[in-house]
Amino acid sequence: MRTLVLDIGNTAVKAGCFDGPLLREMAAGLTPASVRELVRRWQPLHVIVASVAEAAVLAVEELQDLVPGQVLGFSPGTTPVPLRNAYATPHTLGADRLAAAVGAAGLRPGQDTLIIDAGTALKFDLVTADGAYHGGSIAPGLAMRLRALHTFTGRLPLLELPAPDATIPLVGDSTTGSLLSGVVNGTVAEINGLVAQYQMQYPGIGVLLTGGDAAFLAARLPPRIFVVPELVLLGLNRILVYHVDK
């Protein structure tokens, strides 16, 4: 069964083309026109749309005219998922957080799992072995930290992240070096510290890293943290199949 997953984030529109559970193709930076073209080329039977942005790239009603099966608009507060949602305010929960949790539970059934989503925001989310999502934490992402330092000071420059293999010294000997050390090394220390706290409470917990900055951070984190770039897409597809099979 061919399905299409659309993940509309704060900075990009991503898509995943699935054949059953297998992710055959990924695309990012999509426009309404390129989404329509992707639908025509892939010819999915069913589609799921998840958005954390103000407006979806295409309305569910428009997509419904392009596919023969179901077009599911995913809303964490109302859409049933194959996971117990223990979040106290599900109506405020981001679609990407819950989708990543569903994806993690599918990859690691019956196991405690910590998800680190390093995107616009740095998010930690906990899925326990009993198949429940509990929530976690939200903090500024790398680019947001750099932008905040520029925006809320008088003289600090606005920096871009260097290449993933760039060396970030602990002691910055320039303003640029000091900014990168504070943001990058500080974020890495934050991640390592929080992971250690989760490991104390949940011995043997697995850690999955996803998001746009996952590759950049992975080079600076212990190998016990596994990178799964497509985690949100996998979770959304699992949610869609769950509804189609009901």
Automatic annotation (TrEMBL):
<keyword id="KW-0173">Coenzyme A biosynthesis</keyword>
<feature type="binding site">
    <location>
        <position position="175"/>
    </location>
    <ligand>
        <name>substrate</name>
    </ligand>
</feature>
<feature type="binding site">
    <location>
        <position position="120"/>
    </location>
    <ligand>
        <name>ATP</name>
    </ligand>
</feature>
<protein>
    <recommendedName>
        <fullName>Type III pantothenate kinase</fullName>
        <ecNumber>2.7.1.33</ecNumber>
    </recommendedName>
</protein>
<comment type="pathway">
    <text>Cofactor biosynthesis; coenzyme A biosynthesis; CoA from (R)-pantothenate: step 1/5.</text>
</comment>
<dbReference type="Pfam" id="PF03309">
    <property type="entry name" value="Pan_kinase"/>
</dbReference>
<keyword id="KW-0479">Metal-binding</keyword>
<comment type="function">
    <text>Catalyzes the phosphorylation of pantothenate (Pan), the first step in CoA biosynthesis.</text>
</comment>
<dbReference type="InterPro" id="IPR043129">
    <property type="entry name" value="ATPase_NBD"/>
</dbReference>
<keyword id="KW-0963">Cytoplasm</keyword>
<feature type="binding site">
    <location>
        <position position="117"/>
    </location>
    <ligand>
        <name>K(+)</name>
    </ligand>
</feature>
<dbReference type="GO" id="GO:0016301">
    <property type="term" value="F:kinase activity"/>
</dbReference>
<feature type="active site" description="Proton acceptor">
    <location>
        <position position="96"/>
    </location>
</feature>
<comment type="similarity">
    <text>Belongs to the type III pantothenate kinase family.</text>
</comment>
<keyword id="KW-0630">Potassium</keyword>
<keyword id="KW-0418">Kinase</keyword>
<dbReference type="InterPro" id="IPR004619">
    <property type="entry name" value="Type_III_PanK"/>
</dbReference>
<keyword id="KW-0547">Nucleotide-binding</keyword>
<keyword id="KW-0808">Transferase</keyword>
<feature type="binding site">
    <location>
        <begin position="7"/>
        <end position="14"/>
    </location>
    <ligand>
        <name>ATP</name>
    </ligand>
</feature>
<feature type="binding site">
    <location>
        <begin position="94"/>
        <end position="97"/>
    </location>
    <ligand>
        <name>substrate</name>
    </ligand>
</feature>
<feature type="binding site">
    <location>
        <position position="87"/>
    </location>
    <ligand>
        <name>substrate</name>
    </ligand>
</feature>
<comment type="subunit">
    <text>Homodimer.</text>
</comment>
<keyword id="KW-0067">ATP-binding</keyword>
